[in-house]
Structure formats: C-alpha cells, structure tokens
Design brief:
Blueprint lengths: L1 H25 L3 E10 L7 E9 L4 E12 L6 E3 L6 E3 L4 E17 L8 E17 L1 E7 L2 E6 L11 E4 L10 E15 L6 E14 L14 E14 L1
Antiparallel strand pairs: 1-2, 1-13, 2-3, 3-6, 4-5, 6-7, 7-11, 8-9, 8-10, 11-12, 12-13
Length: about 240
C-alpha cells in the first residue's frame, strides 16, 4: 500500500514537472516584428514600424522599436486644378515626417496555446520624436508658358486658379528642417498566429507627442506643437 502511494506520488510529481517544463519551453525569449501603421493623423497609411522584444521574466518583455510616419493636418483637403485637372493640397506649406525610436515594456495578460488561440499583451513605450519638416511644392503658372515648381508660399501663391498641381515628393529634401520632441504611447496587442514560431497580429492604442515649437503645416489654419492620435498597427514577424 505504501509502495503504491509512493509510485503514484512520484508519477504525479514527474508529470507536473514535465508539464511545467513544457510550458517554459513554449515561452519565447525574443521576438522581431515589422508592420504597417494606420492612425488618425496619417491618412490612409500612416507609416511603418519595426520592433524587437526580449524577455525579462515569464510575463514581461522589454521592447526596442522604431516608427516612421507622416503626420497630416486635419484641415488638409485635396483640390483639383482648373488648369490641368491635377490634384494638390491648397494652403499646405510643409510635410511633417516623424522618426520615433522608442523603448518600452510588454506585459502578457493572456497567453495563447502553442498553435492556436489569441495572446493579449499590454504595451507602454516612450522615446524621442524627430520631426522632419519638408516644404510642400506646387506647380504655379505665372503665365501659360511659365509654370514653376516652388515651395508653397501664401504671400506669393495666392491665386488658386494659377495652381496646376503639386510638385514631386522628392523635391525639397535639401531644405528640410529638424524639430525635436518626445512621444509616449499605450495600447494592447493581439497575437493571432497559428504557428509556434511566427507572429501575426495587430496593436491598437493611443499616442501623444510634443515638440519644442509649433510645426507649421497649413499657415492659414491653427497649428500645434502637441499631437495626439489613435493608432492601429498590423504586424508580422517571428519569435524564438
């Protein structure tokens, strides 16, 4: 009787240890993802991101990320040229592109099974915002034979009917100015992948950033130094 009890106890302890070891093996130590960002300040596609996560404990990870996004003014509206039919944004003086390196933490709220289910993580991250302010070029007709591609100037280009379209996106990079700021975000990520070593999912949350001065995007509208947005990021990657 005593020997049978010992055998049962040993088998129970061994099976418990094996299950714990299997669960530990299923926990990944690092993850690398990349994705596309959509946000309320960025139009149809806001930008792109990459992120590396490294385990700090069973349910906590530290993250190192990088985002590159285009921030638009809410008053931006596309117009059509009366001369050519081409579209442009009248009144827009500058683009705002932002590079956001960040450091953060991810807390596992619900861990998914190895090959199925959904894992939910709580996310917080912060870092500098490097604002790249690039002039917005338009095609302006001083006469039918004299059409110039120039940075929009509200004092010089004040006749809507003379605008024949927008200039090239690559124009003006040599005239770009840098404005520094800070950003922070908080959100939830949902990992949906059905494969053990791959990552597919999405992240939703709120982001706020502030710059050292107002960034002029549309001179005739109210411009800000503080921006906030709700974002959605679709991501893919791998873990090990």
């Amino acid at each position: 009787m005593f020997r049978s009890a010992l055998i049962i106890l040993f088998c129970t302890l061994f099976s418990g240890f094996a299950l714990a070891q299997e669960e530990e093996d299923e926990e990944y130590q690092s993850e690398f993802v990349y994705g596309v960002n959509f946000n309320t300040n960025g139009g149809i596609i806001g930008g792109a991101m990459i992120k590396y996560a490294r385990a700090m404990g069973p349910n906590m990870y530290q993250t190192f990320g990088l985002e590159i996004v285009n921030v638009k003014h809410p008053k931006e509206l596309r117009a059509q040229s009366n001369l050519t039919g081409n579209t442009f944004i009248y009144g827009k003086q500058n683009y705002l592109f932002v590079i956001r390196p960040n450091y953060g933490r991810e807390l596992v709220l619900f861990r998914k099974a190895p090959d199925e289910g959904v894992q939910i993580n709580a996310i917080a991250a912060a870092g500098p915002s490097i604002g790249l302010v690039k002039p917005y070029y338009i095609l302006y007709a001083y006469s039918p034979q004299d059409v110039r591609s120039e940075p929009y100037n509200p004092d010089r280009h004040n006749d809507f009917n003379r605008v024949s379209g927008s200039g090239g996106l690559t124009e003006g990079f040599g005239e770009m100015n840098v404005t520094m700021g800070l950003h922070a975000k908080a959100g939830l990520s949902f990992e949906l992948s059905g494969f053990r070593n791959s990552v597919t999912g999405f992240e939703v949350g709120f982001l706020a950033e502030a710059y050292t001065k107002k960034i002029i995007i549309i001179p005739a509208a109210q411009n800000r130094s503080v921006f906030s947005s709700v974002y959605l990021t679709l991501f893919f990657g791998s873990k090990r």
